Amino acid sequence: MDILQHILVYITVAISALYLVNKFLLPKSIWAGKKSNSKGCGQGDCGCH
Amino acid sequence: MSKQINVALIGNPNTGKTSVFNQLTGLNQKVGNYPGITVEKKEGICKLPRGVKAHILDLPGTYSLNTTSLDESVAVELLLNKNDKDHPDVAIVVSDVENLKRNLLLFTQIKDLKIPTILVINMADRMSRKGITIDIELLEKKLNSKIALVSTRKETGIERLRELIADYKNLSKTQNVDTSVIAPEYFASLKEAFPKEDVYKLWLVITQDVNFMPLEKTLIKDTSSFTTKSKSELKRLQQKETILRYQFINGILKETYKVDANAAKGFRATLDKVLTHKVFGYVIFFLILLTIFQAIYGWSEYPMDLIDGFFASATEWVKDTLPPGVFTNLIAEGILAGIGGIVIFIPQIAFLFLFIALLEETGYMSRVVFLMDRIMRPFGLSGKSVVPLISGTACAIPAVMATRTIENWKERLITILVTPFTTCSARLPVYLIIIALVIPEGSFLGLSYKALTLMSLYLMGFGAAILSAVILNKILKIKSKSFFVVEMPNYKLPLLKNVGYTVLEKTKSFVFGAGKIILAISIILWFLGSNGFSDEFKNAETIVTNRVQENGFSASSEIYFETHQNGTTADEGSGALARKELEDRALAQEIAGYKLEHSYMGYMGKAIEPIVRPLGYDWKIGIAVLTSFAAREVFVGTLATIYSVGNDEEETIKNRMAAEVNTRTNKPLFNLASGVSLLLFYAFAMQCMSTLAVVKKETNSWKWPAGQLVFMSLFAYIVALIAYQLLK
């Protein structure tokens, strides 16, 4: 039972860490396949690029 | 399977576009961002007659297709780009019955893109009051379009609108205005160079900051068969186009739209005089802000206490019900605490957005912008920045979310970046305990030093926010329009349905957006504080129990006994707690403190000691600073755990902190120098993961929260360092 609890903890922590790494570090294009071309404003210094 | 069509809702701001959207979609709506940018994307599903389903997209408010902001560019690009998955099969232009002339400018532009277009004339319930009559049949004929006369307040006209959308195949695509007459030769050469493209679309790409695939601005510039005009010449042609359109609109409205001037006016003018008055205007706004502040700070307390109580009970229940072990601890202390840490903000967010929605719905927000803009603009902020900045004194999370009302991206970004400097309520527990410990008794002009210190911290927070705004305004290279135009919409009673939707949508967006990040960080922080690799951590219970048996309880526990046996913190009537029970508690606290010291977090605290030592802190304070990244108020709780005292008795924690000695100097650890240093550190540091998560969500990028974290932490460190070195 104790081992099972430890395994569940490590799984939960790993999922959380992966989620954060994905959010913080990995570019969205990794999962999206290709980069979105919609940048809306068409100008480079508007803040959205 | 029923057919689904794309419908774009577009219109000038303040025409009740969102109300039409809400009535068409009900609760079948979701809010997100356009990919890669921070413009809000509202979409929903609407069931139409004859089995047709419509995907409704509520585009950002725009006055015309001559774009002046990022929001407007998004709307124009979508209308131009047939390859976009959201490109509309039908465009619905929502107009306001009192400002039809201005609204029709946008309508004629969209009609000229050859998109089937329906005109919605909203706020029809005001017609009789304002003495307005419209010959709808004739107007439909003149505009070559179908019209729905709608009152979202009275819920009339929506059925006809649904019918018109379902019948979209029969809508006319005829253009209203032939733009080429403004420069026939120029347009002819444009048509010749790009024979496959619509000339009005080409004209928009040339004159606006928009692109659409496959026709991009650069492609037009690079074409040798066509020479474009200079910027000033294009501007002149744009003005000619606008005049041409207004001539067309005036001609039509002359025949179809009548206003009885005697029936209108009066109330609005009187109210405007008071609400935008040089003195009363500010007094009224101040009173409204005070009410908002009271709601976030005071009224929210009751539901927040209930939520707090619920999660405390849930934690107890989990611990009592599930088999004991680390995973149970994770559920109770990590996951439930994390979810509780998210849900606890809901009342504050709901109250703030309730007020913001009411201010927007009534038309008062535009008056606030008019009043405050002159004051805020020199600092690079908007008149609307006042609401987030003031709300930030309660909590930065709803405050950052409230910046969505600021249209200008640069002003909005600056407001987002500086709002966390304002003193939020989570800083108070830290301030109060440190002030009580290190600021001497005494008074100046009748005000105690402690009160003055607290007030100074609030003022410093505002000062830092304003100063940072000035700096950011200078260094951020973001193009923004320097002119200021604000529309003063009519006053109206708020539609409760709209207010409800806003509150619901903002709350949902926080819980499911930022909430996931907060929960993930909570779990990681729990893991770091509750696990360790050393033997000391693994054998903490045996080590501490043996130590207590051999040497007796620590100094911290002695203070704990003293406080409780004197009955100072025990419940009245029940008397002092029995010695045995006290000893059990003290032992558990000592074990918890010892475990935290030898946990991963403990080692991290010790690792950063060389960094925090110049500020007058030791490793214990280092750990508290690290854990308080979850929320600033956690600082006090962590110190209580490290010092092995219960974290529910402030007096005990304070006594224990006062007794703590700096092993290097043999002087009290919490003295004036280190105390002021800590106060200043917490005044300026970005010690709040929830705020970072919300900033990420609102800016759609980690670049800004990361920059904010680094800048604020460095700034806080330097200020705290200077303060300690000067005062020690």
Question: Can you describe what's shown?
Answer:
The complex is a heterodimer of chains A (49) and B (728). By secondary structure, chain A is mostly helical. Chain A is 55% helix and 0% strand. The longest helix of chain A has 23 residues, at 2-24. The termini of chain A are far apart. Among the domains of chain B are: 4-170, P-loop containing nucleotide triphosphate hydrolases (Rossmann fold, 3-Layer(aba) Sandwich), CATH 3.40.50; 179-243, no CATH class; 280-422 and 441-500, no CATH class. In chain B, α5 (136-143) packs antiparallel against α10 (231-256), α14 (326-343) runs antiparallel to α22 and α22 crosses α33. The interface between A and B is medium-sized, with 28 and 42 residues.
Nutshell version of this structure?
With 49 residues, chain A is mainly α. Chain A is built from two helices and no strands.
Oligomeric status = heterodimer
- The helix content of chain B is 55-70%
Instruction: Work out the strand percent of chain B.
Output: 5-15%
Largest sheet of chain A: none
| Number of helices, where a helix is a run of at least 4 consecutive DSSP H or I residues of chain B | 34
Mean pLDDT of chain A: 66
State the major sheet of chain B.
Answer: 7 strands, mixed
Largest inter-chain contact set: A-B, 28 and 42 residues
Approximate shape of chain B: elongated
Tally the beta strands of chain B.
Answer: 11
pLDDT < 50 stretches of chain B:
none
Arithmetic mean of pLDDT of chain B: 82
Q: Give the termini separation of chain A.
A: 51 Å
Structural class of chain A: mainly alpha
Distance between the termini of chain B: 77 Å
Shape of chain A: rod-shaped
As a percent range, the share of helical residues of chain A equals: 55-70%
β-strand amount of chain A? under 5%
Low-confidence stretches of chain A: 33-49
Number of strands of chain A: 0
C-alpha Rg of chain A (nearest Å): 18 Å
